[in-house]
Amino acid sequence: MSSLLFDEPGPRARRRIRIATVVGAVAVLALLALAVRQFAANGQLDADRWQPYATWPMWRYLLDGLWSTVLAAVVSAVLAMAAGLALALGRLSRRRWVRVPSATYVEVVRTVPALLLVYVVLFALPRYGLDLPLFWKLVVPLAVSNAAAFAEIFRAGILSVERGQSEAGLAVGLTHGQTMRMIVLPQAARRVLPSIVSQSVGLLKDTSLGFVVSYAELLYSGKVLATYNGLLIQTYIVVALVYLVVNASLSKLARTLEARQPRARQPRRRLSRA
Amino acid sequence: MSAILDHLPEFWQGLIVTLQLTAASFAGAAVMGLVITAMRVSPVGVLRGIGTAYVETFQNLPLLVLLVLAVFGLPEIGIKAGLLETAIVVIALYEAAYIAEALRSGVNAVSAGQGEAARALGLTFSQSLRHVILPQALRTVIQPLGNVFIALTMNTSLAAAVGVVDLTAAANRVNLMEAQPIPIFVGAGLAYALIAACAGFVTGRLERRLVMVR
Q1: Which residue range or ranges hold the ABC transmembrane type-1 domain (chain A) (predicted)?
Q2: Fewest 10 Å CB contacts: which of A110, B1, B136, B177?
Q3: B148 in Cβ contact with B99 (< 8 Å)
């Protein structure tokens, strides 16, 4: 029970910590009580408003939504990663006409909101005769915007591989491409794995834009359900909890992968606990 | 081009709303993020737990879900607030988790000897945080905070999905009237890019002036 910001507490500090603990706990409980009272005062705690979510048909509907969410997330992640790898290699290329367009793509797309891209696909492309199916109206903008993020992750990973590694490859007579494929990329891939998982959580969160596209992923399914049964706040709370459980599990996976990374050097002493 | 020029007032109004959303929610998120960071490094276990739970919860929920929950859900329990204000509060609460993460990585980057020296001088926890740890931590997180700011700017556009008429919504409305998507959406995209470029410029300047080489 000691960290570098504070000493092993003495009797007075222990008393203060006890007081802070009680105050903190009371504050949280008071906040919860306030929320419960607000729900109760407006009749939102009545059993018949929550009962439906103890039944299977509701859950089956939401789980269908979750499945569509996962499908959209996986397809856009695969597309974004492929494009991101190409962009990362492009940015590191020795040829100027490859390097400049790749860098421009990454820098520009990083500063355009995903929703604006969704609107472009929804309202601009049809005017030019390109009316995509619903699924792709969500997946294409997500892939376009996340490709830039993945490109930066891959580039950082490639740059983190020590120069000596590719020099050694070139020294034994491998070509530039072979060195990249057989020596640098496998090592980079292992290092960026945790970042890729975290970015995929972000991508999964982005699929909630299906709400705008009317693609029946989890949030849009919640909207349809809430319109149908009138249980607005209950439905959206349940939807939020489902997102929380799924994403927290993925984030935990990212942390586990991070902890498994071989360390180049001893980690510094930390001021706070993880 | 005329599509934009004819509707300059709408675009201007939308840009103002986007700037309001960005500035107000960043200010709120910065304050919240600072408080959460202080809680997460404090000696009180309960406060550390609350801070960690906060960051975990808000980082793992989509912002749009939170916006929909607040805008459509809160009136159900008798909480009625303006649309813009609701959006600002929700975005601030959401981004506070990211600011707290950035700040905590900054606190971790401060070398242990600094904390030990502060304690050796007899500074209390809050004194050493205020005078020794945070000033150094803030200098190392200028770049990450700049990235959070840019992400926040992009995220304010989600308010358009729940009915706030910001730059994104304005572009969409003008396009529905004029049906000239290319200049309209490119124009809106440029405006966002401009905000991001300004943020990048400011963080770059700040970093050159304040960064500490270890």
Answers
A1: 66-254
A2: B1
A3: yes
Query: B46 vs A21: CB contact, 8 Å cut-off?
Result: yes
Q: CA A100, CA A83: separation in Å to the nearest integer? A: 16
With a cut of 50, say whether residue B130 has pLDDT above it.
Answer: yes
Rounded Cα–Cα distance for residues B123 and B33 (Å): 23
Interface of B with A in 60-89 (CB under 8 A): 60-66, 68-69, 72-74, 76-79
- The answer to whether the CB of B38 falls within 8 A of the CB of B129 is yes
Looking at residue B90, what DSSP letter applies?
A: H
**Residues of chain B contacting A127 with CB distance shorter than 8 Å:** 179, 181
- The residues near B146 (Cβ < 8 Å, ≥ 6 apart) are B199, B200, B202, B203
**Which DSSP symbol is given to A92?**
T
- pLDDT at residue A94 in the model: 85
- For residue A249, how many other CB atoms are within 10 A of its CB? 11
Residue A1 has a pLDDT of 33
Residue B211 has pLDDT above 90, yes or no: no
Distance between CA atoms of A87 and A248, rounded to whole angstroms?
29
pLDDT number for residue A266: 46
Exposure of A23 in the CB half-sphere (CA atoms within 13 A): 8
d(CA B95, CA B93): 6
The reply to whether A217 touches chain B by the CB within 8 Å rule is no
Q: What is the pLDDT of residue A100?
A: 93
Give me the sign of the Cα torsion angle A77, A81, A82, A84.
positive
Distance of CA A206 to the CA centre of its chain: 8
- The confidence score (pLDDT) of residue A64 equals 92
| CA–CA dist B90, B209 (Å, integer) | 33
Of A21, A124, A272, the CB nearest to B44: A21
ipTM confidence? 0.88
Query: What are the start-end ranges of the H helices in chain B?
Result: 2-6, 8-40, 45-59, 63-68, 83-109, 112-120, 125-128, 134-140, 142-156, 167-178, 181-210
Tens-place pLDDT, residues B138-167: 888 888 899 899 999 999 999 999 989 999
Closest partner residue to A115 (CB to CB) among B60, B66, B157 is B157
Kindly state the percentage of chain B with pLDDT values over 70: 97
C-alpha distance from A234 to closest chain B C-alpha (Å) = 8
- Give the residues of chain A that fall short of pLDDT 50: 1-2, 265-267, 273-274
Q: Test B157 with A113 for CB contact under 8 angstroms.
A: yes
The mean pLDDT value for B25-46 works out to 92
Question: CA A215, CA A134: separation in Å to the nearest integer?
Answer: 6
Asked if residues B166 and B17 have their Cβ atoms less than 8 Å apart, the reply is yes
Question: Is the Cβ pair B65, A5 closer than 8 Å?
Answer: no
